[in-house]
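Listing S7. Sequence submitted for prediction.
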Amino acid sequence: MEFLLKLKEIERKEKVREEESISKIIIDNTQHDFTIFFEDDKPKHENDFIESCYVKIGNVFKTIKISKENNQIINISELINQWENLKKDIVFNVENEMLVNYILNISKYFENYESLEFLLKNFSIIPFFRLIDFKNFKNNTDEKVLEIYSIVPDGKFDYKIKLNYLEELTGEREITFKGGKTPNFDMVAIKNLFRQKYNITKDKLFNLDTNIKGNYVLEDDFIKEMNICLTIDGGKYFVKEYVISMIRV
């Protein structure tokens, strides 16, 4: 199955700024698991060998396999082996000290199972694939905690999510969800990160709120369409929206 993935970031201050990226992903769906193939990055300069090496590093982790039994990623060991092979190939064949040192420094994250698992669970839209029960769609009626790390560097957003399964007389099926901050949401740390980003001094009153909502349109035994909107409201200083759309083509 091929999907069109759109990621849009909207920022409203004095003016509205929008950034959008569009890519394709392939998903191989089976009875017990599904594999997501993200589109490989390409070097901006085809003849730049060093740049192509950096691109290859990111592309190693663009295939993620998820179990429907427990929503865990089940190809981590395979990815570690692919990384180790690429690492050896570059380290022993490339005479670029900066690139080699970079690879050696990041290896501790990619060769450790728990570390790589954490990175993959929070990569791109993977958290939203792990949010719902694929084994039985009708079970998606409970509350869950969704953690997102990709919004601001060193910042974790915790949402208490309420899922709702809907089935129309026409046979159309949908899972909707919405949520707000959990009691464990570290508002002080997140506000400090945004104070730094927008140069909001501590003597100024700064209120921050955030929420998330979305839906999954279902067809057969998988997702046909996914839509998510995450909002961060910084009052008079800014409002940011992160909008995700994934549609089967």
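Caption to Listing S7: primary sequence and predicted structure tokens for the chain studied. The chain has two domains: 1-26+131-249, 31-126. Residues 1-26+131-249 form one domain.
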